Amino acid sequence: MSAETVKQEIRSLLKERNAILLAHNYMRDEVQEIADITGDSLALSIEAARATADVIVFCGVHFMAESASILAPAKTVLLPRLDAGCPMADMVTVEGLRELKAQHPGVPVVTYVNSSAAVKAESDICCTSANAQKVVNSLPEPEIIFVPDRNLGRYVARFSPKTFHFWEGYCPTHERLTVDTVRRLKGEHPDALFICHPECNPAVLELADHVCSTSGMYDYCHKSTVRRFIIGTEAGILYRLRQENPDKEFILASPALICPNMKLTSLEDIKAALETMAPVVKVPEEIRVPAKRALDRMLAIPRD
Ligand code: 13P
Ligand code: SF4
């Protein structure tokens, strides 16, 4: 079956099931092409919460589908590849977080959305890479426990007078970007701006002209009068950057910036999920309710 035929079948299945297809900015090009909405973790959570469809086909990784299930419990959330996980999310466990909380009693826990529902349920408030700064500033306490991303946490801490207690988790994909690679590329393209995601390691972030979430990159590159950019995040971001800015050049900072989990979902997987209405991601109520509290508290913070 040709890719075009599969796409057509997906479109008609989406209609038949009253389903909406959400895709993260790192998905394969052909998945982004057929999505109803593409976005970063924050935008997709908001879309999941406000969707009127009965079914959400979540093309992303497991924690994102869990967030959709937490925010929209009456809807069926399909994750076409149940094996699409996030190694960073898996680095923090409920037991580990409880131990850290016990070491710092009364200190609020800020949890990056790249975490399991069970870990969110143990947290005071969630954040994404787009709003981490605002979330930290919204808390009156002078100390913060920040999990699981040590790089995002340390980046946010640079702009805050608070005392941070970090979890030493990281994204294996973003960690692969090295200072040497960025320096070499900047030398080869002195007119280019280097834009990167806060999941990169602190030494790489030091070299950045701008640090932002995936959706922040679309805004920034579109508005900028500069014509060439070195991009320090997962390769999937290039699809829309190039589409929306045909007069600009985007250079991926390293060929190693590919998240294997984000690349798992194929058109065939999406079609099969809609045909069989599986795999479903459903968060049990005893975890969903406290996890929703942490997500809602984040969503109550006004966006720019
Ligand atoms: P965003 O929050 O920018 O979408 O990033 C999610 C993610 O998984 C980055 O690796
Ligand atoms: Fe997780 Fe990194 Fe992949 Fe994002 S890019 S899903 S943080 S492993």
From TrEMBL:
Its cofactor is [4Fe-4S] cluster. It comes from the Bacteria. The keyword Zinc-finger does not apply. Pfam families: NadA. The keyword Iron applies. InterPro entries: NadA (IPR003473), NadA_sf (IPR036094). Its EC number is 2.5.1.72. GO terms for molecular function: transferase activity. Pathway: Cofactor biosynthesis; NAD(+) biosynthesis; quinolinate from iminoaspartate: step 1/1. Transmembrane segments: none annotated. Keywords: 4Fe-4S, Iron, Iron-sulfur, Metal-binding, Pyridine nucleotide biosynthesis, Transferase. This is Quinolinate synthase. It comes from Geomobilimonas luticola.
